[in-house]
Specification:
With 50 residues, the protein is mostly helical. The chain has three helices and no strands.
Length: 50
């Protein structure tokens, strides 16, 4: 399923996301991911254009 969701952007997007996360201190990674998830949901949950 993850591969299907990323297909339009390709594996480069996943590589960039993982590379960025590795720069975040390990103790803070979960909170960073939660913040990004929250922002995505807030931005796109209304069903507007992506």
């Amino acid at each position: 399923m993850l591969i299907e969701l990323m297909r339009p952007a390709g594996p480069e997007l996943a590589r960039r996301w993982v590379a960025a996360l590795t720069r975040v201190p390990e103790a803070q990674r979960e909170s960073v991911v939660e913040a990004v998830e929250r922002r995505i949901v807030d931005e796109y949950a209304s069903g507007g254009d992506a």
